[in-house]
Amino acid sequence: MKKYEMLEQRTREILQQYTMKLTIRQVYYRLVSAQDIENNKSQYTYFDKILTRAREKDITLARYFEDKTRQVISEAGQDIFQEDLFSKMISDTLEKIVTCPPRISYSPNNFQKNIVVIFLEKRALENVFLEALREYCGYVLITAGGFSSFTQMYELSRRLLDEKRKIKLFCFGDYDDSGILIRQSFISQCSTHLGIEFDEIKDIALTQEQIEGYNLPQNPTIKRGKKKNTHTLCLENQGKNLDYFVELDALDPNILSELIKKCVSDNFDWKVYNLMTAVEEIRNRRLKKAYLRSLKKIDIDKLIFDLS
Hints:
- The chain is α/β, with parallel strands linked by helices.
- The chain folds into three domains: about 5-65; about 115-270, Dna Topoisomerase Vi A Subunit, Chain: A, domain 2, CATH 3.40.1360; about 270-305.
- About 50% of the residues lie in helices and about 10% in strands.
- It is built from twelve helices and six strands.
- The chain has a four-stranded parallel beta sheet, with helices on both faces. Strands 5-6 form a two-stranded antiparallel ribbon.
- The chain starts with a helix and ends with a helix.
- The model is unreliable at about 70-85 (pLDDT under 50).
């Protein structure tokens, strides 16, 4: 089997292991960890070309990948040719009456003691976070994609300013100089420009313990004596020297997903949530019963006449 065929086959095997969509870089690091491909720029470029050809041959393969830079939004309607429009309007109206009783909804964050703020450095991984958080509530997800803008800080202030509850910050990003500085800048901006002081700040991923424990692929930093970028020099001025860097994409998506869920679950009062949910269900059952009783009093013949 040729190398490109092996990599395409292994890619399909990896994609079947996850319920969420992945980025190409995440799949690449799964292959690096399995020693199917070397960890360098030329091999990543080669792998990207292999996937491009594979998706050209089988477009359905594209559904397993996430691309945050390109989206398709469609609001195309559907023409009706064979069904009488008036009859459809009548049936749709009656169906809506029966299936849409009034409901009351409580905010999931009511009476909670904590607000969980999740800071994600990389926009490309946003889909993994949204998938992991799908069953949870009461959190604020910040997708940085680089250093935070004042527009983003303003949107955050609308959610957190004057908040009396405890605000806990959990950070996810690359283990490198820019990743560390981006998190430091975000925390500083919250304090300086918004007056937001976090009650707890914790780096969840990536940590040095995770890198060593999961044997994640390490990329060497620029050698001493050569020209260093501004971020590296800034960290060195803080007394921090990184001998290597590791991307968040290298962490197994299932492990990353569990870390995300744990942040929210450990700081969320499920007893309060379940009580609020029970109260909501009781109120809505009562509303539905009252609604159904009122339906019995409706004159259907008169309703159809009014619609005509």
